[in-house]
Amino acid sequence: MTDQMTDQSANIERLIEKQTEALSRIDTYFSQSEVEKRQSKLRQLIAKSVAIIGISISGLFGGWELCGYLYEKYQIAEMANRYAEVADEIYYRENNPSVALSFVDKAIELNENNVDHRYLKSYIEGMASVRSLMNLDRPYTKEELDSAHHAVAQAVFLKRLAPDRAEPYILQGQIYAVLGEYDKALKELNKAVEINPQNDFAHVRLALLFSSQGKVDEALKEIERAISLQPNSKWGWLWKGVIHAEHQKNWDLARPAYRKALEIDPRFDLAWYNLAWTYIKEEPANYDKAREFFDKALRINPNYKEAYYGLGMVYGYQNKYDISKIYLDKALALDDKFLTGYKWRGIILGEMGDNKKALEDFSRAISISPGNAELYIRRAKAFEKLDEFDEAIMDLQFASDIEPSNKRIWLYLGNVFEKVGEKKKAIEFYSKAISLDPKYSEAYVGRAKSSEGLSEFEKSEKDFESAIGYASYRPERMYFERGKFFIRRKNYNAAIKDFQAARKLSPRMAEAWLSEAEMLVLIGDKKEALEAINHYIELRPEDKEGHNLKKSVTLN
Prior knowledge:
By secondary structure, the chain is mainly alpha-helical. Among the domains are: about 1-115, no CATH class; about 495-555, Alpha Horseshoe (Serine Threonine Protein Phosphatase 5, Tetratricopeptide repeat). Helix content is about 80%, strand content about 0%.
């Protein structure tokens, strides 16, 4: 019997050693304060002590069958704890709630009376709901809102189960933030920090709440606190990069933060994805770098729809529309409710000249988000290109009901009415756009053309002057449009000056060189005309118009 007791004692000692190692690992996974860690260890130690005493007493009094039973139960509890540990690691370190929940379920199956395991399950389920809502680019469905409210209920339940822990307040704060109830979110997250000032996750979430409200300085302070608490947490560094990139447009500060996150976890797909975008948004863009990093994100996560969308944008910005469409197709194959994917594929299809298919994509996007004015504007432009003017006007008027202060809607309404010959109506809408933005150069150009159509030439010339004076984006277009107006007014010298101003601002503006050459030929300045023609031919060597004009000048 003594040997048997010795063997049991040895088994118990080994279990205690394994359990102690497990506790050490758990401490590194959870963002708990030292007090919480000590309390957790104390609870575990008491539980182990009770188990050991029970098993020992059973053995001493000859109850070895009971001792074996208790030992088996202890092993099952140990296995359940291991499953819970793995679940915790997978959730916090790998950000994979679905796999984490499968392991929690195994833990609960083995030890259904363990309150801590049920607590962990409720928390991960709630946060998984929040994560799915945060990543949406469209309005929530009823089912998704029900999921959010279910997560609120879980948070309330967790508060009652463990009112002295920060996690329930983080969960409820996150839900309120997603639903746009920022005051409530702030209250919950501040409570989480109050309960556990050492919880880096609470500081990160508070930082994200501040950044969503444009409070960048406060957001960065919270992120720095989170990083100081957990320097090796990839999440703190990721969100530091996001704040620098999205809110400050400071790529030089964002990139080192993303790279630090990748140094901690080279397989961090979110960091590769965000790093890629910094190379698209910088001036000039570095599309090769962006493509490289989107590819890395996809090698880690082949179902990363946003990375496919990113590649679609890389090729779209380079006017490689066929390739862009392939990647957008892939993104939409992964999520048939991907609003941004439909919107940009519609834009790409329009650039490819397939306006009928573009209409289908914009219509699909509108069915997903019927209150999005931008989608109606996009679809209206597709209708306009197909000469379906009534449909274009209907979409724009509907958009104006949604966003009456959107100047682009009134500009496009003016353009459509100008195109169908209703000049007075067009002027009315251009004037509406200008009333919303007195420096709206595109609206001045539109109104100038409509006024010219009504033979109101002084008004027209005045509006062209305003368009040039206010133009901040590609002002060469305004000069070019006024140059064409001067041609129609037979003021060729003024037209030449405007075409020259346009091509000085944009030396690769081929049409400005050609129009200048034509005017110079008209006034008899062949030498200057040939110089302008040669520039045009250099830019468009395959275009016959330039070669024919040069031939006519040299022959004469």
